[in-house]
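Consider the tokenized backbone below.
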């Protein structure tokens, strides 16, 4: 399939995606003293984070700033927290400073937390222009981050982070705070990390090959990085 790398083995998927991510980070650091990385939640990237943490000897993670692409409105130690998964599988295993990790403040209301995150992202991008790499997943309905089809968050044009007005339409059923398209598309490199069955293959086909027929307005189809390209990785 043009434009996508397909893997039958999840471990191979994790290994190859992690190597690609490290290559992008190393190239980014050639052009500057620091680089930035937006981390995806969900279950798919967990193995990639573990591989990055355990197989990046010689790479200095203290030069990377980390952001969370979206989060469930739950405490940081909640089983459904994206930050909890990322911290356990990756951040706890690498050397870095707390100031490198831009998380969502769960002590605020969802609206306040989204506003706070928007302001911190805006300040960062004012000084750094774009994110060097954005990692994203995709759900069986074509959503990415917490931008769901048919919901207003996917149409946000100005704010860089917003809170969903209602609980997510897919499990886990929590309200979310998510980066919006104006933030996610401020990227030099975007890596879509997918794992699943035929429904995801069909969506990926429709997005990558629009000539096969008009596709519904999948939020993932609006991922169009300003300066770079999008890479698709898929594991059965």
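A designed sequence for it:
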């Amino acid at each position: 399939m043009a434009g996508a790398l397909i893997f039958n083995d999840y471990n191979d998927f994790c290994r190859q995606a992690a190597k690609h991510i490290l290559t992008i980070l190393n190239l980014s650091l050639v052009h500057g003293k620091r680089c930035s990385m937006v981390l995806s939640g969900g279950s798919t990237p967990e193995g990639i984070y573990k591989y990055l943490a355990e197989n990046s000897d010689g790479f200095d993670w203290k030069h990377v700033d980390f952001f969370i692409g979206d989060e469930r409105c739950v405490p940081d130690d909640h089983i459904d927290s994206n930050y909890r998964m990322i911290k356990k599988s990756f951040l706890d295993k690498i050397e870095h400073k707390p100031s490198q990790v831009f998380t969502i403040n769960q002590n605020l209301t969802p609206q306040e937390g989204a506003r706070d995150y928007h302001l911190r992202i805006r300040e960062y991008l004012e000084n750094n222009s774009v994110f060097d790499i954005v990692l994203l997943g995709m759900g069986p309905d074509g959503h990415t981050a917490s931008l769901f089809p048919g919901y207003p968050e996917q149409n946000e044009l100005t704010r860089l982070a917003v809170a969903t007005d209602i609980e997510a339409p897919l499990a886990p059923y929590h309200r979310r705070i998510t980066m919006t398209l104006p933030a996610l598309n401020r990227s030099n490199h975007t890596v879509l990390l997918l794992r699943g069955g035929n429904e995801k293959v069909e969506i990926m086909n429709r997005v990558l090959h629009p000539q096969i027929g008009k596709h519904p307005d999948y939020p993932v189809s609006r991922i169009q990085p300003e300066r770079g390209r999008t890479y698709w990785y898929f594991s059965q």
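Residues 139 and 170 are 9 Å apart (CA to CA).
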